[in-house]
Structures are given as C-alpha cells and as structure tokens.
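Incident log entry.

Two folding requests arrived from the same account within the same minute. Monitoring flagged them as a possible duplicate submission, but the sequences differ. Recording both here for audit purposes.

Request one:
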Amino acid sequence: MPSKQQTYRLEGISCANCAKTFESNVRNIDGVNHAEVNFAASKINIAGRVSIPEIEKAGSFENIKVVREHQKTSKKPLWIRYNRVLLASLFIMLGIISEVVFDNAAFISTLLYGIAALAGGTTLFKAGLINLTRLQFDMKTLMTIAVTGAVIIGEWREAAIVVVLFAISEALESYSMDKARASIRSLIDISPKQALIRRQSGDEQRIAVEDIKIGDVMIIKPGDRIAMDGNIASGFSSINQASITGESIPVEKTLNDEVFAGTINQDGYLEIEVTKKAEDTTIAKIIHLVEEAQDERAPSQAFVDRFAAYYTPAIIAIAMLVAVVPPLFGGAWGTWIYQGLAVLVVGCPCALVISTPVAIVTAIGNAARNGVLIKGGVHLEQIGGLRGIAFDKTGTLTYGTPAVTDVFFYTDDHEKALDYLLTLESKSNHPLAKAIIDYMDSKKASVLPMDHFTTIHGKGIEGKVNGEMVYAGSPAMFPGVQSDQIKTYQEAGKTVILCGTDEELLMAAALRDKPRKESKHVIKMLHKLGINHTCMLTGDHAKTAVALQKELNLTNVKAELLPEDKLEFIKKFERKNGSIAMIGDGINDTPALAASSVGIAMGSAGTDSALETADVALMGDDLEKLPFTVKLSRRALSIIKQNIAFALGIKVLALLLVIPGWLTLWIAIFADMGATLLVTLNALRLLKIR
C-alpha cells in the first residue's frame, strides 16, 4: 500500500458532525499519519498506509463508501437510494388504514408502525446508540431517545412518524449535497481533455492534457477552445475570456500575451507555448478555490441541533427524577413511573424538530413560486443577516452584451455615414459588429457593394465602397484625430468605433454593455432595507466600472479583478464588516460565490457551475427578486424564533403539571400535538408575503 498522501472521494456523507467523527476515526487507524476531511467537496486526504476497506470500516456508522478520486461510479436512481424512506412511509399509511378499517386491530397497526420505524430508522438508531455509549448527545441521540420513549409508552404511530420525518430531512440534505459536490467536479469539463501539440520533432499529435509538458506548443485554430495556460508564440486573435474574467467582449491577443485554459479562440490561428501543467491551470485553480472556500465556510447548525446537547440529557434527567424520587418518599411506584413516561412524551421533540423546518419549507416554497430558488434553510437564515451585497457586472447588473448607446456625426451626410459603417461591419464577425448591425437595422441603413475587404489586426477593418477606401475601427486606426466627443465617451467607460474615408471622418459610435433596467431600483431598495454596502466586482476596465457605479448609486466598485481577487475581497469584507452575499453568473464568480456568506446566481443566464455553487438562484435573471428575498428571510427568522418559543413554552407548562401530579399521558400527548399544530399554522403565515 502507498505511504504518500492519497485523496479519496466519499459517498454517503451528508452531516458535518458525522464528517468530524469519521475524520477522527480514520486518524486512529494504525498506519495513518494524518487525515483531513473536506466536507463540502466530500473528499478525504490521508497521509500514511491504509486500505480502502479500513477507511470504510471507520465510517460504518454512516455507511460511508470510499472511492479513488478519479474513479467513475454509477449513480443509483433516487427511488433506490431512498427506498428505506419510501418503505417506511408505506407502512405508516398501512398502519393508519388498519386503525380505520379494522376493529381491535391494535396488534396489526403496532406491527406495521414498528416495521416502519425499523425501515426508516436503522441508521438513526445505530448512530444514536453509539452516541449514547460515548455520551454524545446530538440530534440523532435525541431522536433515538424520543422514539424509544414513545415506544415504551405505546405510542407506536408517533414513533414511526418521527423516524420518517427525520429520515426524509436527511435524504433531502444528502441529495442537495451530492448535487453541489458534483458541480464542483464538473468545472473541469470547461477545458478540453486533449490538445493538438507540436513538439521538437515537428510532428503534430493530439494528446491528453495530463501528458502535455511545459514548453510544448499547442496548435489552436479559429473556434477552438484552449486546453492549457500558455503564452502566444505565433499569431494574433481575439480571445473570448468570459469563462475566466466574465467579460463578454473578446480581448485582442498577440505575440507573448498570456492565454488561459477554457477560453475560446475567435478568429485567428495561434501557436501557444504551454507554461503550466494541467493541474496548475487557471481553471484548475478556480476549482481548488471553490473547494477551499466551501470547506472554510462551516455549515451552520440549526438551533435545535445545538440545543439538543442540553435538552436531551435534561429531559432524561427530569424523567428519571420524576419516576424515582417521589416513590422514595412514599409515592406509588406505578403512578410515578407513569408520570416519568409522560415526561418523556412531553419531551418528544416532534414540535421542536419541525418548528424550524416547517417555517423554512414554507418560506422556500413561497420563494420558488415567486421565482427564487433557495437551496436550504441555512441560506434562507443567512440572507436575513446580510451586511453587504457584492455584484458581478456583466450579466448581473448589465445585460452581458454590448449595444450602441450613442452616435456622433462629423458629416452632414448621415445616410452615407450609416451606410458605409454598416457595409464594413456586415463582413466582420467581431461581437461589436453585431451590436452595430443591430443598431443600423433600426436606422434603415443599407449595405452597399464593397471590394477589397481586409481586417487590420488590433485596429479594425477596411474596404472599398463606391470607389473610395472606407475604414472602421478604434481611434488607433485614425491617428491624429482629436475630438472632445470621443474623450467624453471613453471617460464614460464606453468603447468607441470610428468610421471614415481617406478624405474625412464620418461618424463615431459608442458602445457599452448596458445596465439592466431594474438595476438602479434594486440598489435603491436594498439601501432602504438597511443593506448599506453594495459593491460591484468586475474584470472590466476601471473607467467603465466607475461610470456604472455613478449611474446605479453603488457604494463601492473594484475593477480589473481576476477570480482570486474577487475571492480576496469577499474574505476581507467578512473579516471587517460581517456577512456578505455575492451575486454573479459566470465561472469566474464561483470562488467568490462559494466563499461568501450567501452565493446568489442569476438563474437562466448563469453557468452551471455558478448555479450549482450558489446558495440562491434568481430564476428569469430578475434582480427585483433580491429585495423580496431579503424581506422573506427576515420574516422567516422571526417566525422561527416564535415557533421555538411556542414549542418549548408549551412543554414547560406541561412539565409544571408534574409538581401536583396532574400530568397524564393524554395531557402530554395533547401538549405535544398542540405545539405541533401551533408552530405549523404560525409558519403558514409566510405564504402571505409577496
């Protein structure tokens, strides 16, 4: 067996506390020098000599399966993975039917409820009993004791239902965690698995990226996706770097410029010298940042789980005291043992267990109906406590595609200027050309016959129209041209395209990625809600970013950022100011989405990685859902606190009946069911929020 560090993937681990227990068990295996579990990525790093069966034995209490990092596994259908929950639910329904249909069917219904409890709670009971032997009173211990108490006093139906509710919550948590983890691994699919390589021998061959060496030369044709990071050794082209920077406008690249794996070559032939190994590319670094960021953000434990560490032993102690102490001073043993069992029923966590989930499920359901996908209760709670929100620019605050915002004519013949520019741009495949063509179509401009069309790399295009040479491109194509209008456009963060002939300058067109119509209103609403820090994080130029900041009244802006820069900003803000949300739509946003208190993705326009990494998705790309989500979260937090107070308050009142000896099994059951009904009805008020 190897002694160096090995990384394994874990299947079946959905609980953060279980991950810690598993990590501790693995560290105690003979031959293991160190072990560290990354719960978010569902991985374990082990230094030492150990076999996979030995590792799995350390996780037998959770049925954890261990596979090698790159090993492919087949996913079982959901109905097979969660068949125990389905089976338990079926037996509960049969038990209820037997009570209704058959007279004197106590034995049959009890048997059916018992089977349901065993089918849905085998793992729960196993973990709960192990925890009891170690005096670890977590939620599973609480549930095990509650179910056992219900069985002792003959409440088999309640025992079975509690088991199934707990099993369903665990199944949903496991499913959501599996989806999130798969999305992290799928990021690597962005860059190709093979590349066309030319080595010193001069032969060209297509080889796997794992076998490419630093110094190899990649051959990249127009339209190809670049497989490795490197520097351009020959050629010139526009590179779409949206996967790295998130910016929609391609960047002109020439000799010695750096290019990244996962980006797309637009229109030129390139030879690229590889400068990094596959595991060190920028896209691989993004994956690593996502995993590390998610691991740093420890899952928030629900109040009930924290409270259970004190609640469970307290209820057990109270029940034992009630059953034993009074008989020692002359009380009847039968009477006080009955009172002790009634205390266990009062202590049944049914109302307490659902007090938080019922509010969360209701709020999440309401959010979904209003176009907001919230991936769990923890994220719903965290939204209510946000101190700031950081926005990506392209595709989030803006539409993500350039559009013509202004035109300025240097000639009185506007028709000629429009026709000439449209004629040239109609032959170009540059993204800015499409924006200009769309604008010209609205102005009813015409495409004229043209000869000698040529692309001038880095500057623009030219062609002969009506016997005279016509040029269109950046101001660099027209040296010596001085214009206050051009300067004004550039200071506003706009891209300027000029059109002219050898004799005269005809017109200027200013383009910009336009802000969404709702962006300014959303920022204003967030400020009214008390979220005073609204910041834009973008890879775009500083002038463009500052112009948009002023237009939208954002409190701060950071420009020309790479993914790691966005991540660093999020970390610094959290250390200084508290919780912050990140909202974005691109792969480059995923590290910041993962590190933020709440990651929010733009729904239909968001990349798969951004959507899966994020905690919340705004479906339909509607930013106006953001203030609604904040208000819903705050109301849900309020109702959760009320529910917990109701659940515990009613139990305390019932327990006080023990003092005069008035607590009966029926009062105990009524108190428990009444608390359950009360917290449910209270949570349903969340449906009224629009």
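Request two (distinct sequence, not a duplicate):
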Amino acid sequence: MASKILSRRDLDFLLYEWLDVEALTARERFAEHSRDTFDAFLDVSAEIAERDFAPHNRRSDLEEPTFDGVRVRMNPEVAAALKVFNDTGLLSATMDSSVGGLQMPHVVARACFAWFQAANIATSSYSLLTAGNANLLLTHGTAEQIDRFVRPMLDGRFTGTMCLSEPQAGSSLSDVLTRATPAGDGSYRVDGSKMWISGGDHELSETIVHLVLARAAGAPAGVKGLSLFIVPKHHVGADGTVGERNGVALSGLNHKMGYRGTTNAVLSFDDATGYLVGEEGKGLAYMFQMMNEARIGVGAGAVALGYTGYLHALDYARERAQGRPVAGKDPSAPPVPIVRHPDVRRMLLSSKTYVEGGLALILYAAKLLDEPSDENDLLLDVLTPIVKAWPSQWCRLANDHAIQIHGGYGYTREYPVEQFYRDNRLNSIHEGTDGIQGLDLLGRKMVMRGGAGLQLLIGRILTTAVAAPPELGRPVIALCDRLATTTRKLWAGGDPTAALANSTAYLEATGHLVIAWLWLSQLAAADGREGAFYEGKRLAARYFITHELPRVVPLLDLLDSGDTLLADLDDAHLG
C-alpha cells in the first residue's frame, strides 16, 4: 500500500528525472556516493519515519510536554525515535567527513529529512535545530568549541537551540536586552530572558547547547551591538563531559496550537557561563546562517505537512462514497466515491500543485547549495524568503482542503488532518513571519547589487518559459516582464515606506511566479514519458498555469497603483 506520509515516486522523479542528482557524484565532495547510497538513505528514512516517528505523532499532540517545576516530562517515544534517527548518521549527513559527516548532497539529505517532518513535525524539529546549531559552530566556532560542543551533538549526546527572541523583542532583534559581561577568564556571564525557544528544555539529551544573542558590555544599541554566545544548560568540560547545571533555568513552557510535541520554553539566564562565538558585534551576522537554514527547514516542514495532508485526503476521497453524479437521475443508484465530484477534484488537484510544487522548490533550493557559484549563491539568497513563506501559506491551504474533503470528519480529532493543519499554522510565524519575508524579498533581495538578483531570477524563469509549450509559457513570460517593471516602479521614487507598503503582496506574486516556473520545468522533465504519473504532472502544470497563476495579476495591479493605504492607515481607524 502506498505511503500516506510522502510519495516516494514523486521524490524519485524530482531527484533523478528532474534535478539529475546522480550527476552530483562527479563532484569530488560527493564522489563516495551513488544512486545506490542515495536510495538506501531514502529507504531507511521512509522506514524509520513510518515505524518510529509516525506512530507517536498523535500522542505527542494530545499529551504535550509538562513542567513540574523541576523537570520537563514528555512522551518517552520522542527520545526513542531520536535515538534511532541519530544512529543513522543523518544528523550530520551533509557535514564534512572530518567531523563524522557523510558529505551527502544537501538535496538528497533534504529529501530524506522530509520523511521525518511529514511523519512527525514536532519530534523532527529537535534534530532540525541541532543540525543548524552544529553547522553554525562548524563555520564560525573555534576548534576547541567544535570538539567540546559540536562533536557531542553529532554523536546524539547533546541537542541545540537558537535563542533570539525575548518577551519584549520578538522579530525586532535590535531591542534585545540580554547582556554578557566578560568574566576575565575568556568566558562571559550572561543575564537575561529568552522567549519562544523551541527545544529550549527537555530530558532528551545530556545537555542543551543554546546559541544566545546578547549585548556585550559597552556594545552600542541596535543589531550592531549583538554578539553570539554558546551557553550550555550544563557546564561542559573541555573533553565534552557534562557537569553541574549552568545558570540557565526554565521559567515555563508555552502552550501552542500545534507543534505540541516540541517544547517551547521561556528561559532565564542568571549569571550563566557563556562563550563568545567569533567576534563581538557580529552575532547577528553569524546567526543569520542558522536562521536561513531554519527558514528553509520551516518551508520544508510546511511542504511535508501539506503533502501528508494531501495524501490522506486523496486516500479518503477514493474510499468515501457519497452522492451521485450531477447527471445521475436514479436515486436508487449506489453513491460514488467523492473523488468523482468536480469540486473535490478541484481541491485535490490544487493541493497537488501546491505540495508537489512546494517540494520542487525546496529541493531546487537545496541543490543550489550543492553547486556553489556566485550565481547560485545569489539565487538562493533571493529564493530563501519564498522558500520559507510560500509553502507556509499554500501548503497550509492543502491542509485546509484536506479537512474540507473529509467533511465533518475532518474537523474531528479522530482524523489526523486537523492536526496537520494546526501544526502547519505555525510555519507562517516562526523564523520570520510572512510579512518579514516580504520585506526581505522586496526591500533587500530584489534590489541588492543593483537588482542583480531580480535579473538572475527572471533570466532563469524565462529560459524555461521560452522552451515550454506556448500556451503555458506565454503567461509566465508576460508576468516576468510585469514583475521586472513593477519592481523598478516601486523603487523609482526612492521612498522605502511607499515601496514596501504592499511587500506581502509582492512576496505572494513572486512566489506564485516561481512555482509556475518550477511546474514548467517539471513539465519538460515529463515530456514524452507515458503513464498516469507523468500525465498527472502534465495536468498539474496546466492547472497551476491556468487556474493559479492568474492570481498574480491583481496583486501586480495593486503594486503598480502605488497604493499606500496600509502605510498611511492610522490605528485609530481600526476601531
């Protein structure tokens, strides 16, 4: 029976027929790999996801972690699943062999991890955060810091977090108040409070390595005064041995709508020992590495949740018999599976375009990391806010459709689709809200280096669109021209307030255009191939271009109008 977690057939198509990941093995870094090793890791990922992650997904939602004032108590199946995951070596899959990594291409590792995110987003998030923490320290930490903190994380002994937000400072990091004072021995004393810390406290590992943004003594106000510190939950010796508690205390757990199996902590740092990463004043620049990795991970999680919701809905629609065709005249005729009703097909087909298009976006971005160049690095910068935000909106709509297709059953806790929706709702918030991604895309990524990122993106899209069937390529070409013109027009006056007044609309328009491009690219990969799978790809591409892409037109119309209502609005007008 086909899995309702992810589609292995779609992954194989995207990896091997569309992105040709086998060609990456010609690169020295990936020379030890082959399709056989890629397939082996995909197979084991699917197996562990089905066996060790999916079964406790519901329990972790119903029995969320609790804090008794001393320790966090949680579902023991989480620790068991993470141990199995760590034993595979997938936590360090993309890392250098010098630290025990597998030097696997990012694109394959991302496909593997999607299985765990789709099976159990809450449990998988501990590994996502730990890997991001380790990657940051491998780039910016000292050899001693890597030995003391990173190697134990990669061995599965430690976990990691990122500590940015504070009770008074969510996304506005310039308002961070946590302070760090030199202790005279090379370490610092860290004091302050951090809020919304995913994985911030638990008993899943020997200790937790917190990466904390704080303001060193004498540092200036604003983000330029922020530095980054390693602040472990326990003191850690030079040889990685865990000692007494550090000055890091759990003040309480936040109780979320979804992701309930992931602890979300309020942490108090009281004279806690911390270790500076890199140089003072460069903390946010370092943290952006983990933030951007997390943003891609959030987008991937949104795709995974949308995808599993779609597969559950498709299976239900094929089995659930209700109603008769509109042309049916015999009331005694047996009911038909609801998949035969046009509006159910509409929701299924639109969901298919969202989740398969979103998965293509995630894997395309990951492959850019595997083929570094000035162009690919720039394109990834431009795509990152779209990778984070587009799936968080549209793959969540696939979850909404899944509930609708289930009807009244979908709105009950007896069916998993309501949990998928609740879990996915968080992805538009954490690691930078959709609004922040819109500001980043229009305010920075599309205008940096004289608009080189915009030109590069449009150039890539046009190359694909020109080669596509004219009836599908023409609308994409026309919208490329409009996007370029609109972007120039928005910035023509040099007024950022006016230019960014509708940046979220710009993000949505650009995201849909990017997904249309990737559907045209998939269409080319399916060309000439026979069978229901390939015909499904062709129909999905046609549907997205003809039914979804037109959404971009009114968004660009709004942007072209120069409307500044949202910037000019006074809050008194809201009642």
